[in-house]
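Q: Start with the shorter request: fold the first protein.
A: Done. Sequence, then structure:
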Amino acid sequence: MSNGEEMPRRVFDTALSELYDDTLALAGEVEKVLHQSVQSLKDRDLELAARVEAGDDDIDAAALAVDESAEKIIAKYKPVSSDLRRVISTMRISRDLERIADLAVNIAKITQDIGGQPLLKPLIDIPRMASIAQGMVRDSLTALIEEDLGRAADVYHRDEEIDALYMQIFRELLSYMIEDPRSVHRAIPLLFAARHLERVGDHATNIAETVAYLLTGDRHVPSPGERSEPTEG
C-alpha cells in the first residue's frame, strides 16, 4: 500500500474496529436478556419478564445501528476481499443476535402468560436446553473474537444435541396431552419455550457459519478433524 493509502487505511481500520465493538456490545445485551428470559420462566418472575420485553426496542435499535454503520462503511470505503467479508459478517451476526433477542422476548411473554399457574411439570429439560443454547451463543461469539474456526465448528455440530433434547421434550409433553387433554393449556407454553430455545441454537449455528465465512470465504463449517485452510486476502 502506498503512503497515500495509509491514512484512508487507518481510518477504515478505526471504523471497522468501532463496528466490531458495537456488534460485541449488542451481543452482550442479547446474552443478558436470553439469560433473564429463561430465569423469569424458571422462577415465574413476572417483573423480570416485563424488563426483558421492555428492553427489546433498545436491542432492535442497536442491531439497526450496526447494519447502518456497515452499509456506510461499504459505501464509503468500498472494501474488497477479507475486508468486505468482515463488514458483511457483522451485518449477518447482528441480524442473528436481534432474532435471538426476539426469541428471548417470546420466552418472557410465556412467563407472563403462565403467571402464577402451577407448572405442568418441574422445569428440568428446558433449563438444560437453555444452558446449551446460551453456551452455543457465547462460544460462537468467542469464535468470532478469537477467529477460531475449531470453536465455530464445535458450536455448529453441537446443534444436534439441542435438537435431540427438543424432540425429547416434545414427545414428553405430547404424552401428557394425550393422557390428559385438560393439560393442553399448561403443556403448550412449555412446548413453545422449548421451540424458541431450539431456534436460539439455530441462530448460534448461523453465527458459527458466519465465522467460517469470515475466516475461509466459505460458509461450510468443517467437521471435527476436517482441515479447512483460511482464504488468502
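Q: Next, the second protein, separately.
A: Sequence, then structure:
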Amino acid sequence: MYAKILTASLYGLEAEISRVELDSESGLPGFSVVGLANQSIKEAKERIHSAVMNCGYSFPPCRITVNLMPAGRRKKGSHYDLAIALGLLMCTGQIPLTPDEDIACFGELSLDGGVKGVEGLLPMMTGLMKLGIGRFMVPAENLAEATLVKGAEIVSVMSLSEAADHLSGFRRLPFVTADGSAAPGGGRELPDFSDIRGQEAVKRAAQLAAAGRHGLLMIGPPGIGKSMVGKRIPGIMPPMSYEEMLDVTRIYSVAGELRAGRPLVTERPYRAPHHSLSAASLTGGGSRPGPGEISLAHCGVLFLDELPEFSAHTLDNLRQPLEDGEVSIIRVSEKCVFPCDFMLVAAMNPCRCGWYGDPVKSCSCSDSDRKRYVSRVSGPLLDRIDIHVVMERIDYEQLDIGGAASPLDSAALRAGVEKAEAAQKERFRDGGFKHNGRLSPAEIKRYCALDSECGEIMKEAYARLNLSARSYHRILRVARTAADIEGSGDIRARHLLEALSYRMPEKYFS
C-alpha cells in the first residue's frame, strides 16, 4: 500500500514543502529512507519502531520504503518523525488511508510514543503559510510558538495515538485558529546607566550609537566600566516592533534557544560571547548550518569584550555582515541566509597590561608589545565601527556612591534615542525604515548635506586625519544622528565636530 503526508524542510529561515511518501510491500523485512536524509532522520526508524509498538500498533514484518520529497535536496531534523510514523500506520492499513490532504505534521517521537517539541517550528509554519498550507499538527510543547502564526489552523498532540486517532476520525481534536499573538511573559530587569558614576562622555557616545545603530568601541584600562556600559545599551534602545519580535523569534526557534513559557522574544537581544569562540560560532555554519552569534543578536546588541583577544580570522568575518546586515552560509547542496542587523559594541584595553596612558599606574608594555596587541584588530574592521571613545580613570568624588545620582540615567538617554528614532521614521515614512547607521551613499548625499562651514571642516579633517571614503561616510552618519537627537533638520558644525571626535584615537593606534 501507498500513503503520503505533508511536512516541511527548513533551509536557514526558509521553508519548503516536503512530502513524505511511504510504500509497503511483501518481501524481506526492511525499513529504508531515501531522499538525502541526514543521520537524525535515518535514526528515526528505531524511535518509530518503539513508539508504534508502545502505542498498541504493530510494526509489520514487510519491506517499507520512505521517500522524502523533493528528493534532490538534503533533509535534516527530527520533526519528520511524526509524519513518517503516521504514514507508516496508513500504508500498513492500521488507520484509514484518508488523512487531511492539506495538514502538515511536525513532531519528534519518544520511545513511549510521546510527541516532543521541535526546533524551527515558527519559520517552517510561516514558510508553509506563504505556500498555501494553513493547517498544522504540532507538538503540544510547541503550541504557544505555533499560535504566533496569524491565521494558521492548529491542532496540538501529545502522543502518536492522539495524532492517529485524529487523522482516522476516531477522535477528532479541536483546531485552534492562531491570532498572531502570545503572552510575552515576564521580562528581565535591565540595568540602568545611573549605576555608572562619571563617564558622561561615554554615556553620550552610547546614546548616539543606540539612536542611529552605530558601532561603538570603548578603549580604557581594566575596571573602568566598559562592560557595564555595554550591558546597559539595550535598555536605552526603543522597544521592538512586532515584526522585529517575530524575526528574532524565528532565529531563536531555529537555534533552539526559545525559553520555556516564553515563545515570543520581546526584548532586544544582548549577546556577549567569550573571546574563545570560533568563526563558525560567531557567523553561523557547521555541518548543519545554523545561526551564529551575529544572527542571535539581530535587532539587538553584540558585545565583544577584550576585542584583541578574539582571533583575527574570527573578527574579520564580521566585516561583510556589518555592511550587508545578513550572512550567507553556503554548502555544496544548499545556501542558508540569516539576518544579522545588529549593533556592534566592543571593548578593549589600550595594551596587554591595560595601563597605557593611565595617569596613576604605569604601563609595563614596550612600544612593540603595545602595537602588536592593538594590531590584532584590523584596520578595515576598526574603520567599520563608527564611534571610538576613550574611557579614563574617574576621581573619587565622582565615584562616591553617597553623592547625587548622574542626570544621565537610562530614562534620560532613552528619551534622546526615541527622539532620533521618530526623526528617522519621519524621514523614511514613504519607504522602508532605515537607521542612520545603515544609510547608503546616495541617501547620505540626500540627507547629510553640509553647508559651507561644515564643508570646510570636513575638507580639513579628511586631509589631516587621512580618512578613507568609508570613514567619511560614517562620520556624516554619526553627525546626522547627533542632529536628530537635538531635533535639528540640518547638520551643524557642532554635530560634525562631535562626530569627528569619535574617530580612532591616534594615541592608541599609532
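Q: Describe the second briefly.
A: The mean pLDDT is 91. Residues 410-427 form the longest helix (18 residues).
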